[in-house]
Amino acid sequence: MRTRTAVFTGVAAIVAVVAAIFVIKKGPQLKEDLLEKVDALKAKIKDVEVSDVKEAIHAKLVELKADIKAFDWEKPKKEVEKKFYEFKKQIRSVKKHLPLAEEGDGELAVRVD
How far is CA 103 from CA 16, 41, 51, 109, in A? Predict the structure, then answer.
């Protein structure tokens, strides 16, 4: 019985290693995949309207403001500090994306620095 289990385990391990070799992509392949994804995003951004971006940011800020108001600020200090930093991180995340969007003929222009 042990021999069967050992043989089965060995065969399964060999199959797994061979499958992994065929699944793993090499560096240049990963680079090409990433470049394709960047090109796809660049193509999508051409269809984005400034008003859509503004609406999305506004909705996120309204949601964040409601979450801040709804949070129980009388909780223990550690919980309050943790939540404060979570809110601060969310605000920074929204703020980080603001300078990227510029208006221009009703379309979204993205600066690449």
Answer: 52, 19, 9, 7
Q: Name the pTM for this structure.
A: 0.49
Per residue in 28-66, pLDDT (tens digit) is 777 787 788 888 877 877 777 878 888 888 888 899 999
39 vs 35, 36, 46, 50, 104, CA distance in Å? 6, 5, 11, 20, 21
- Residue 41 has which token pair? 């995003």
Beta bridge partners of 53: none
- According to DSSP, the residues that pair with 24 across neighbouring strands are none
